[in-house]
């Protein structure tokens, strides 16, 4: 049966090379094709018949029927459909038009550009739409001819001619509509790809002002919603104008049939149009409000997803979940308003044919023109039934076009935003030669982040950097160090002066930018692998030992934003990326702050001084020990270069630099004084001691595993490693038949079974009443006792009686959709906020984002619409078939097998279509992730001048996604064409039976049968469309349901195990044989740690990268649950209590400070627990009072996304302000002062000691002075405690800690000795 069905369902199959499945392996010249594509789509090789019948997609359908498809099975696009070609056309036209446009007439620039790029290929689409419209409009005339034929008893030959002409018209209708739809979607796909690429390209060149106006979340919305919506615009546009044309032509047919009696019928049509105008305006208003609310929710969601670790550490889940719920509530309100008008418009457009027909018939009676006979009545009814399609879908089309216009305006605004001056960054070799010995030159530079304001970020900057110089930039927090770096990179708007850079740049940002992918991908960043250079770079950046310790070497995958790496590892990876680039100028923005002192010394010596010895290096640092080797030091304060010169030249009394050096000397002196017997030790002896001790310091550096060498691996071995036990897994998707499970899930979650049942019953009742009204006309028309008035009155009464049912059907469908939207969003939002941190570490943010954005949008709008329409069309199909069978029962002989064949064809199609839609769901997430990563690292990308590499990768992602959509669209049209063919056979059979058996049928019943038969095709097509649409969009239910079932972390509150409100009263922490592993079967990270931290003590935790410091903190906050062992705080096991009870009693300043969009107040006190006086007191203590007092809005001063308008040091100080407000008994400092200068560090250490004098303070630090005055020091190595004692005792022995101190002192004392001598010389001179 299945082979027979396959053959039947592939009518017009073209048995040529297209029918064979050829999985060709791309040659070397095809490497730029879509990755994973087995072959190019067969459309390019298809002949005329294969193209006409869409048989070229048969190989994909056959493969999908034989096995579940995977991405590698999807053929690549034809070259003319690829995104690069589409974007080039768009970019060319945009460029030529933008030169002629100004700010006053640029509002519709994108619209004009798209019109010019798309009009040629849409001429064929328009021709197909016109042919289809004419075919549909003339069908009622055939009904008129058939009824006249039966009435006048014409010869059979004439009847057969009518049947033949009807067959031609029906097949022309099918072919023209299918190719209109397919080519409109194909053209829309090209337009979508071009717009998505344009958005990404704009993102790469967006200025700092543009980035302020358009956050990362907003840009992702432009891609996920606006670009995808624009891709469907052409389909809706052609549908709209062709339906309008169909409406007017149908009115013309009515005039032809009934003459002037049709004039009264125009009145209700005009009333409907007039009533639709306020509906359209209201819909546009609500649509715009809905999209704005949706954009704000998704922006906030993206911010939450990117900073979920901070939210969990601070126990702010309830606060941010409430915020997201509130934003969703606003979005839901506008969604409900937008959907609320649907029941009214549905009644208006479903009942308008009945009203119009009744008015036309009454007009005919009054005018007494054309006789009211069966031919006239059913021709009018058939025409009006054809008009019901325009009346129903024109509002839908206008609604979508309104949405598209809103999207178009948003995209137009974004694409016209200020751009980064690309030309200034592209320095030619001629400029390099002309520059002589200069690398960087700034003359009279004044810069401001907001050019329209009078506030300057940098003032009177004059700087000249010569080739090969090492330039250090130092200064207090907020002095303008990073702004100066941005001025060199041209990332900050220039008010006056000139900036010239001669040579290529490699930039290392202060906040590490890490891509999802392997370590090797991050280091190479598009460059070709040179094994010798690669090994040299990883060794110079102290990465070789780290790489050897990873299970997959440099092919180990890095999680989202490098979340499975320590801060030091992330910093060294991006440093290695810069060094491997082999640029002329290296700009390092505080690159040593996240690494320990030994690693910092190695980087300074092996990387900066050795590997980059012939390069120009400009580095920002708070490590004064690295300043003595600088050729020039720039001292920043208040946005100015206050001092400039070598180390010895800057030590004048009273200067900013002298204060910084004094603070550093004080720290070193304190360190030296704490080291008994070593006060007079010379630097050289310390160096010797360090060199001797360095080898035996416990670390993972003794790991003897070799680095995996990629050039020694085959491609298959490399793929095997990448497919192994990596952190980020391939996105899960359902495979195979899911049956009714997604629909049942939809009804179960929404509790909508009763609503759906009511929808079905309401629609059946409506269809039956409509059929009864038509039957009345068919039977009563020949009854002389029934007057025309009664005939029309009863017909109108029965029809109007059906209106409440169609209203109820639409209303219940809307209620079902709204109920499901609320239930599913509540479920996924709750699930995400309760998910453990491991889920966010292993799941790319783009994967989560697609669930809460495009999938949620599909569930909001598409699922209820498709479900309601499917119910309607099924009811109509059953009633239509029943009416036809009641008149010509032999038609069942053909219709039943045709229906069975159509069902089989649908099953054959669904096997492929289901997997295509599921795959399509997984191809969107990488696009979102790529856009998000690019947005966060755009400054680095521009500095490296590697935009083309990222652009090329993005094009591949776009083409992969487009290829799946392309074949999914083609499969839908393939199915509908075959189902239409089967239904055409049914219609032609009914017509043939009427011709061959005329004497047994009354003209009224003939008209009734044919009027329903002619609509059978459109009903079947619509039903198939709705079935396909529902099959596609119901996958969103599957995908959202996946993330509603995430295994949650332990509960926030455990009743019966809640600690006292005063807990912890002391702050005593006990670790008992604590063992931690991040995943089952992964190695232990903490290997049985046992120790006691006495209440009220300050404990410093030190150790090499990967020793377990961060894991220990994660265990304390229960971001990861112990495999065994216990953690007791004041005698209570923290694993027995709720997470909220635990985390609210602990305070932490994380290594990577996090700020949220809002105000200074909302970032310091997000829960609103503290008064303004308390907040100002905390601000003063964290050294930010002067800065914030000078801002116009004070505590309400804005904080942009991720605190981009504040320096990293200021962000850390604001995080310190948070803990000063909370004043918990236990405080954790995770490199809390890494990004601030030594002077501010000394002040803050004093404040922390004073404010938390009775608290337990755990400090993780790379600066030895930060932990040297701790009461206890814990040394971790390879997940074990190797030392835990008082610092003075550890210093007296040959301990690991003493060696670490000697290491720091050996580096710092040189600078201290040199600065002392220089200071003394300067004092004597004075």
What keywords describe this structure?
disordered N terminus; 6-stranded mixed β-sheet; alpha/beta; 1326 residues; 45 helices; 23 strands; disordered C terminus; 9% strand; single chain
Task: List low-pLDDT spans.
Answer: 1-37, 426-430, 671-724, 1311-1326
Class by SSE composition:
alpha/beta
Largest sheet: 6 strands, mixed
How many runs of DSSP E, i.e. beta strands? Answer: 23
| Molecular shape | elongated
End-to-end separation: 105 Å
Percent in strands: 5-15%
Radius of gyration: 37 Å
Description of the molecule:
The protein is α/β, with parallel strands linked by helices and 1326 residues long. Helix content is 61%, strand content 9%. The protein has 45 helices and 23 strands. Strands 5-8-9-3-10-11 form a six-stranded mixed sheet, sandwiched between helices. It has a six-stranded mixed sheet with strand order 17-20-21-14-22-23, with helices on both faces. Helix 8 (216-231) runs antiparallel to helix 10 and helix 27 (753-780) packs antiparallel against helix 29. 54% of the residues are buried. Residues 1-37, 426-430, 671-724 and 1311-1326 have low confidence and may be disordered. One of its GO terms (molecular function) is ATP hydrolysis activity. This is ABC-type xenobiotic transporter.
Task: Set out the fold topology.
Blueprint: H1 2-9, H2 48-52, H3 58-66, H4 83-100, H5 109-152, H6 156-204, H7 208-213, H8 216-231, H9 233-258, H10 263-306, H11 308-313, H12 317-340, H13 342-367, H14 374-415, H15 422-425, H16 429-434, E1 438-447, E2 458-466, E3 470-474, H17 481-489, E4 494-501, E5 505-508, E6 517-518, H18 519-524, H19 531-540, H20 544-549, E7 557-558, H21 567-581, E8 585-589, H22 597-611, E9 616-620, E10 632-637, E11 640-645, H23 656-673, H24 683-694, H25 715-722, H26 741-750, H27 753-780, H28 788-801, H29 803-834, H30 837-842, H31 845-887, H32 891-936, H33 938-944, H34 947-996, H35 1003-1044, E12 1069-1076, E13 1086-1093, E14 1098-1102, H36 1109-1116, E15 1124-1129, E16 1132-1133, H37 1139-1143, E17 1146-1149, E18 1158-1159, H38 1160-1164, H39 1172-1181, H40 1185-1189, E19 1198-1199, H41 1208-1222, E20 1226-1230, H42 1238-1251, E21 1256-1260, H43 1264-1268, E22 1272-1277, E23 1280-1285, H44 1287-1292, H45 1296-1325
Parallel strand pairs: 3-9, 3-10, 5-8, 8-9, 14-21, 14-22, 17-20, 20-21
Antiparallel strand pairs: 1-2, 1-4, 6-7, 10-11, 12-13, 12-15, 15-16, 18-19, 22-23
Helix pairs in contact: 1-32, 3-32, 4-5, 4-6, 5-6, 5-9, 5-14, 5-35, 6-8, 6-9, 6-34, 8-10, 8-14, 8-32, 9-14, 10-12, 10-13, 10-14, 10-31, 12-29, 13-14, 13-28, 13-29, 14-35, 19-21, 23-45, 24-45, 26-29, 26-35, 27-28, 27-29, 27-31, 27-35, 29-31, 29-35, 31-32, 31-35, 32-34, 32-35, 34-35, ...
């Amino acid at each position: 049966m299945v082979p027979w069905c396959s053959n039947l369902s592939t009518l017009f199959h073209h048995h040529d090379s297209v029918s064979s499945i050829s999985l060709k392996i791309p040659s070397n010249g095809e490497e730029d094709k879509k990755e994973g594509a087995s072959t190019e789509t067969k459309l390019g090789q298809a002949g005329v018949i294969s193209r006409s019948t869409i048989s070229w997609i048969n190989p994909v359908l056959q493969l999908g029927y034989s096995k579940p498809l995977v991405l590698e099975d999807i053929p690549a696009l034809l070259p003319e459909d690829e995104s690069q070609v589409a974007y080039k056309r768009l970019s060319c036209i945009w460029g030529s038009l933008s030169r002629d446009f100004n700010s006053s007439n640029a509002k519709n620039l994108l619209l004009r550009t798209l019109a010019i790029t798309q009009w040629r290929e849409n001429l064929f689409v328009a021709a197909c739409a016109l042919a289809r419209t004419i075919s549909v409009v003339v069908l009622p005339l055939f009904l008129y001819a058939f009824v006249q034929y039966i009435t006048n008893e014409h010869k059979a030959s004439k009847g057969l001619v009518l049947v033949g002409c009807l067959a031609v018209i029906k097949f022309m209708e099918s072919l023209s509509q299918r190719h209109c739809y397919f080519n409109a979607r194909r053209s829309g796909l090209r337009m979508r790809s071009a717009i998505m690429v344009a958005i990404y390209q704009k993102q790469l060149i967006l200025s700092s002002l543009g980035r302020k106006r358009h956050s990362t979340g907003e840009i992702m919305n432009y891609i996920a919603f606006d670009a995808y919506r624009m891709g469907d615009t052409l389909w809706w546009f052609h549908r709209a104008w062709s339906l309008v044309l169909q409406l007017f032509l149908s009115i013309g047919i009515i005039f032809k049939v009934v003459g002037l009696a049709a004039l009264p019928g125009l009145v209700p049509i005009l009333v409907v149009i007039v009533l639709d105008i306020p509906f359209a305006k209201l819909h546009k208003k609500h649509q715009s409000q809905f999209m704005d609310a949706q954009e704000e929710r998704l922006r906030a969601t993206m911010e939450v997803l990117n900073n979920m670790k901070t939210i969990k550490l601070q126990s702010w889940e309830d606060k941010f979940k409430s915020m997201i719920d509130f934003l969703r509530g606003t979005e839901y309100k506008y969604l409900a308003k937008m959907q609320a008008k649907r029941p009214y418009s549905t009644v208006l457009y479903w009942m308008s044919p009945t009203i119009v027909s009744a008015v036309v018939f009454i007009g005919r009676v009054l005018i007494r023109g054309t006789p009211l006979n069966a031919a006239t009545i059913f021709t009018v009814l058939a025409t009006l039934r054809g008009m019901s399609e325009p009346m129903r879908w024109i509002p839908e089309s206008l609604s979508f076009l309104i949405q598209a216009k809103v999207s178009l305006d948003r995209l137009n605004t974004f694409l016209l935003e200020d751009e980064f001056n690309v030309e200034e960054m592209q320095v030619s070799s001629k400029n390099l030669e002309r520059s002589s010995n200069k690398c960087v030159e700034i003359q009279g530079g004044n810069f401001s982040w907001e050019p329209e304001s009078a506030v300057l970020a940098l003032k009177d900057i004059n700087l000249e950097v010569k080739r090969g110089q090492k330039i250090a930039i130092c200064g207090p927090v907020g002095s303008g160090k990073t702004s100066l770096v941005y001025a060199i990179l041209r990332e900050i708007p220039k008010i006056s002066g000139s900036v010239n850079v001669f040579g290529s740049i490699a930039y290392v940002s202060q906040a590490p930018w890490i891509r999802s992918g392997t370590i090797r991908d991050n280091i190479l960043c598009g460059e070709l692998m040179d094994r010798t250079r690669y090994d040299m770079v990883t060794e110079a950046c102290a990465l070789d030992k780290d790489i050897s310790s990873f299970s997959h070497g440099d092919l180990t995958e890095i999680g989202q934003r490098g979340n499975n790496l320590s801060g030091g590892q992330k910093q060294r990876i991006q440093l290695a990326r810069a060094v491997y680039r082999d640029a002329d100028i290296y700009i390092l923005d505080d690159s040593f702050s996240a690494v320990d002192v030994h690693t910092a010394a190695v980087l300074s010596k092996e990387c900066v001084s050795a590997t980059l010895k012939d390069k120009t290096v400009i580095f920002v640092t708070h490590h004064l020990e690295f300043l003595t080797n600088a050729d020039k030091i720039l001292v920043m304060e208040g946005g100015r270069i206050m001092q400039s010169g070598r180390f010895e030249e800057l030590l004048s009394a009273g200067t900013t630099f002298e204060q910084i050096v004094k603070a550093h000397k004080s720290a070193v002196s304190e360190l030296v004084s704490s080291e008994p017997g070593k006060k007079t030790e010379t630097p050289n002896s310390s160096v010797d001691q360090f060199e001797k001790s360095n080898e035996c310091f416990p670390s993972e550096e003794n790991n003897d595993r070799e680095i995996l060498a990629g050039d020694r691996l085959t491609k298959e071995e490399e793929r095997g490693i990448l497919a192994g036990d990596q952190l980020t897994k391939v996105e899960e998707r359902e495979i195979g038949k899911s049956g009714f499970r997604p629909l049942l899930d939809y009804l179960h979650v929404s509790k909508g079974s009763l609503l759906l049942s009511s929808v079905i019953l309401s629609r059946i009742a409506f269809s039956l009443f409509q059929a009864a009204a038509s039957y009345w006309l068919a039977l009563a028309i020949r009854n002389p006792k029934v007057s025309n008035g009664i005939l029309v009155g009863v017909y109108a009464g029965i029809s109007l009686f059906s209106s409440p049912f169609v209203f109820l059907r639409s209303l219940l469908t809307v209620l079902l959709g709204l109920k499901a939207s609320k239930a599913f969003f509540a479920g996924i939002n709750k699930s995400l906020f309760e998910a453990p941190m491991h889920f966010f570490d292993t799941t790319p943010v783009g994967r989560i984002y697609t669930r809460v954005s495009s999938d949620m949008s599909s569930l909001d709008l598409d699922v209820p619409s498709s479900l309601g329409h499917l119910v309607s069309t099924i009811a109509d199909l059953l009633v239509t078939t029943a009416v036809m069978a009641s008149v010509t029962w032999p038609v069942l002989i053909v219709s039943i097998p045709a229906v069975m064949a159509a069902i089989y064809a649908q099953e054959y199609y669904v096997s492929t279509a289901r997997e295509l839609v599921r795959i399509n769901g997984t191809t969107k997430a990488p696009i979102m992730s790529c856009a998000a990563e690019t947005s966060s690292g755009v400054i680095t990308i521009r500095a490296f001048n590697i935009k083309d590499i990222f652009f090329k990768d993005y094009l591949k992602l776009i083409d992969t996604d487009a290829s799946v959509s392309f074949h999914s669209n083609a499969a839908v049209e393939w199915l509908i064409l075959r189902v239409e063919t089967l239904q055409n056979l049914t219609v032609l059979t009914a017509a043939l039976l009427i011709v061959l058996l005329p004497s047994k049928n009354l003209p009224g019943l003939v008209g009734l049968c044919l009027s329903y038969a002619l609509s059978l095709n459109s009903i079947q097509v619509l039903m198939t469309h709705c079935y396909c649409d529902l099959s596609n969009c119901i996958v969103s239910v599957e995908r959202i349901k996946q993330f509603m079932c995430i295994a949650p972390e332990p509960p926030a509150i455990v009743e019966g195990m809640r600690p006292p409100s005063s807990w912890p009263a002391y702050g005593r922490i006990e670790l008992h044989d604590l063992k931690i592993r991040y995943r089952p079967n992964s190695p232990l990270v903490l290997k049985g740690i046992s120790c006691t931290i006495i209440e009220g003590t300050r404990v410093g935790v030190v150790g090499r990268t990967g020793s377990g410091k961060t894991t220990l903190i994660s265990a304390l906050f229960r971001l990861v649950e112990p495999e065994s062992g216990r953690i007791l705080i004041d005698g209570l096991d923290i694993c027995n209590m709720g997470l909220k009870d635990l985390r609210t009693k602990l305070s932490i300043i994380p290594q990577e400070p996090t700020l949220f969009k809002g105000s200074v107040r909302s970032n310091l006190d997000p829960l609103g627990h503290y008064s303004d006086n308390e907040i100002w007191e905390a601000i003063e203590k964290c050294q930010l009072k002067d800065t914030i007092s000078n801002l116009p809005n004070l505590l309400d001063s804005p904080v942009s996304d991720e605190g981009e308008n504040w320096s990293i040091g200021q962000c850390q100080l604001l995080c310190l302000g948070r803990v000063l407000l909370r004043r918990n008994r236990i405080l954790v400092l995770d490199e809390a002062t890494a990004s601030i200068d030594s002077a501010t560090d000394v002040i803050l250490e004093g404040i922390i000691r004073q404010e938390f004098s009775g608290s337990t303070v755990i400090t993780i630090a790379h600066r030895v002075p930060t932990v040297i005055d701790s009461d206890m020091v814990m040394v971790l190595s390879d997940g074990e405690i190797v030392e835990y004692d008082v610092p003075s005792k550890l210093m007296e022995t040959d301990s690991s800690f003493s060696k670490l101190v000697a290491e720091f002192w050996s580096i710092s004392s040189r600078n201290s000795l040199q600065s002392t001598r220089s200071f003394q010389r300067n004092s004597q001179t004075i």
